[in-house]
Write a structure and sequence with these properties.
The chain is an alpha+beta fold. Helices cover 56% and strands 10% of the residues. It is built from 22 helices and ten strands. A five-stranded mixed beta sheet has the order 4-5-6-10-7. The N terminus is likely disordered.
Length: 561
Amino acid sequence: MAAISHCRKIFRFNRIHFFQTSAAAADAKETGLYGFPHLKTPNGFQRFVDDAIERAGELVNHISTMPSSAEIIRAMDEISDTVCSVVDSAELCRHTHPNREFVEQANVASMRMDEYLHFLNTNHNLYNAVMKAELEGNVVNKETQRAAHYLRVDFEKGGIHLCDDKLERVNQLNMDIAQLCRKFNANIADDPGYVDIHPAIRIPKRMRHIGMPICCPAGSSTKGCRLATDPVSLISILQLVSDAEVRKLAYIQGNSVPHANLDVLDKLIAARHELAQIMGYKSYAEFSASPNMASSVDVVMSFLHELSSMVKPKADEEFVKLRDYKRRQMGQIFTDLEPWDETYYSAMLKGSNFDLDSSVIASYFPLPQCIEGLKLLVESLFGATFRNIPLAPGESWHPDVLKMSLHHPEEGDLGYLYLDLYSRKDKYPGCAHFAIKGGRRISEAEYQLPVVALVCNFSNNPSTVRLNHGEVETLFHEFGHALHSLLSRTEYQHFSGTRVALDLAETPSNLFEYYAWDYRVLKTFAKHYLTGETIPKKLVDSMRGAKKMFAATELQRSFMR
């Protein structure tokens, strides 16, 4: 979503008076989605957009009078905050709300804000004001100076410094790219793919709950099973199904659909390449890399090649080990190691070498206990506690949603977190962290607290859901993103939380994953769902050993993603 990402770097969003800042406020009266009063009904998105554009217009007019440098940057940040409250709310709603009317209105709001963002990002009065603020250099502090610099750079990434004809073309390309990205994601949601397997006994019993019974083919008396090939389901199929033909069918289908995206990708590649060339870059990769820490394609490729050369010898050894293991398992009917074999046989080999059973491991990780474990970890690390707080009428989008505040004994509430953890139809298929509000300073005495949502797709039976350890690791990863947002304290929401260089954004969350492997952490919450027994250290040691078993292969595979 290149155009939207670019616009967000200039205009991030949210206004303090839209959000309830305490549990008491949440109890006070009915509100709308995420605490925004406008969003009590689907049509409220229209008013939400109208009011955001009106307020942003007032601030644009104020900036045109050329106030002080500090006032310019503060007003720019409020424009960003105001506009992005709509964009981020619409983004979360589009991916999670079960009501199609809300989703459709969120889509309309998102498209309207895309158009308005292009107007803002090509407004020469704003650009000149930002340049004035940067050049004057007499701003209040380094963060304000840095904000002025990055705002100017972001404006220029949108082509504002180009001649009128080129700028008009850049604007059109950015809108086309945004629409193509939206279409690409919609196609994935609409057509995750599936394979029909006959008879159903070819599917392990413990997996049949993720499939759908289908009628038997003509001339057969046995029923079949339809398996979805979305990324989450595909991993389970490749890991657990012993039938190689089923794995092959699922692998090919899961990596082929949706076919409609082939045309979308062709158009997207062409539009991005044209955009990059107009902007003076050789390629879109060069254009995308320039604002990040790596800063250039050469730096990125040098890093990847160097790392790959270090990893390849070990990865080759692991491949031979896996191929030989398959040969021993298959005997006379051995065929070469295929792409759909790797996950299955690596899981088998790990299990046999370390005596691991995924169902046994999962018995120590009921989801509610994992959440409690994360709360304990956060308190031990930061001295802050997550507290469950009530949702106001209209604030939630589904009965499963929970809301927590992150509270510090001296500083008070630090921010708010929504948890939407269980799978359901038409919901975003993976796990993700969604920003709703970034933190920013309103005045000397008032700070706008960050608000985020953590969205996952765990088994939709809250009373029995137990996570495999890969899901535990994912949960810790996403919590790392949430903490990055909630603990961030910046003057401007432009820099709040995960709103950083793209090649830095994953660092806190990746580091937080390590706690999911640390026995000192796991023993505080990983307890058997029936007996209450703490997870044995020997089992955790085996899990850690299995993790390292094909580490080079996993790392090398990540280069190709």
